Amino acid sequence: MNTPISGLRILPAEIETGLGREAGAGPGFADTLHSALQEVDRLQGEANRETGGVLAGGTTDVHGAMIAVEKADLAFQLMLEVRNKIVQAYQEVSRLQF
């Protein structure tokens, strides 16, 4: 139940452009985004299961359900900010004149 959110860290040092990458060089930018989205989806599913269990009366761990909901919310907010930065960067690049 205590799953780290460390898989969601997307730091500039961890992002590669894919240009000049070798076959075993590690995940690229798209792979990192995809795995982060999968982690957000997993956390949201876990939050749904926890809250469903509380609402159905199967478990009385309200604190665990609230923690799962907050983890999912925080992960979603992070991905939303990453998306906003990507869109902002795309718009800035599209305004460049060559």
What's this, in brief?
This protein has 98 residues and is mostly helical. It is built from two helices and no strands. The termini are far apart.
Detailed description of the structure:
- This protein is mostly helical.
- Helices cover 63% and strands 0% of the residues.
- It is built from 2 helices and no strands.
- It has helices at residues 29-56, 62-95.
- The longest helix has 34 residues, at 62-95.
How does the SSE layout of this entry go?
Blueprint: H1 29-56, H2 62-95
Helix pairs in contact: 1-2
Q: How does the helix and strand content classify structurally? A: mainly alpha
- N- and C-termini, Cα separation: 51 Å
Low-confidence stretches: none
Count of β-strands: 0
Strand residue content: under 5%
Order of helices and strands: HH
Global Rg: 18 Å
Mean pLDDT equals 82
Question: Characteristics of this structure?
Answer:
single chain, 0% strand, 98 residues, elongated, mainly alpha, 63% helix
